[in-house]
């Protein structure tokens, strides 16, 4: 199949043929955001938008996920395309006419866009079915935002038999329409910890009769700053953030307990596995020195999102052929954010690709996050082109 010819004007062809449908779906999903695995209505909207297409559809994957398979007219590789469907517990402040109608829930990470772009790609690729080599698996995943829906989908076999896999993420801070990725790690491993500090409570006026959990906690927060600055190789990226601290009931009571909560981000697996020991050692050392104690609860969560070098190169080449060189960026560094597409990339060579929504766009996970819907046809075109490139014998 002549891939080059098919890429000509693909974005405008998709915009013309499916633009209205993609945008309507995006707004429909945006109005009614759902959290975690609870994406039943979103999945129903996706199914309606896929109606009439020559797809084999499996529902109820990872609770409310969908896997839709397109078999091309000829033999060839199996390519996976994955979009996430879940929203965030944030109250929207965009003022958009199709803003969230659910108090406290919002599509503030663009997953409404990702889902709609994938539906657009499904329409475009189904339209080319007869000339298509191999199969395409369209994967609509719940629970990216903390639930590990990607892990559950992989456990349920969704990655099996795939030769490559790709996913897009809308990305504020990058020029509008820019396609960016890199070989190797693109997002960090994200782990979480809670530390309970135990002291002895007492009267605020008699500190010598207690072991002050507040003061111990304050010292532990400070000493934890030395984990990255004094224990990690300075050229190795790592982040340790204490984002929660809690203790006490009144201004004049020394509390018995304090609680810290934090996150650790790393790119190196050995470093990652060594972190709980350092955090526990420092926390307990400080607490015991102050007549208290500390217990650590550490939870390993999303692994590093690691792109296959060949797949990342293919994504950049495809974007250059589809758009132009100015629209393509090979990222110098990963983000220390995290993404559960990582679980798919542990099984299948592939690439996670960022799609710029503008340098001035509000950040992901903010109540103001919004994007120009022109990006949707562009994303659909990119997903379509990634399949055509993968399916083309000429590469
Ligand atoms: Ni996201």
Core attributes:
2 domains; Alpha-Beta Plaits; 4-stranded antiparallel β-sheet; Aminopeptidase; 395 residues; 35% helix; alpha/beta; 16 strands
In short:
The chain is 35% helix and 27% strand. The chain is of the alpha/beta class and 395 residues long. The chain has 2 domains: 10-185 and 304-391, 3-Layer(aba) Sandwich (Aminopeptidase); 189-302, Alpha-Beta Plaits (2-Layer Sandwich), CATH 3.30.70.360.
Question: How would you explain this protein's 3D organization?
Answer:
It is a single chain. The chain folds into 2 domains: 264 residues, Zn peptidases (Aminopeptidase, 3-Layer(aba) Sandwich); 114 residues, Alpha-Beta Plaits, CATH 3.30.70. 35% of the residues lie in helices and 27% in strands. The chain is built from 10 helices and 16 strands. The protein has an 8-stranded mixed beta sheet with strand order 1-2-4-3-5-16-6-15, with helices on both faces. Strands 10-12-8-13 form a 4-stranded antiparallel beta sheet, covered by helices on one side. Strands 7-14 form a two-stranded antiparallel sheet. The termini are close together. The mean pLDDT is 96. Bound molecules: nickel (II) ion (NI). The site of nickel (II) ion has 4 residues, from loops.
Which radius of gyration do the C-alpha atoms yield?
24 Å
How is the biggest beta sheet arranged?
A: 8 strands, mixed
What binds here, in terms of ligands, is:
nickel (II) ion
- C-alpha geometry: elongated
Figure out the total of helices: 10
CATH domain class name of the largest domain: Alpha Beta
The low-confidence parts are none
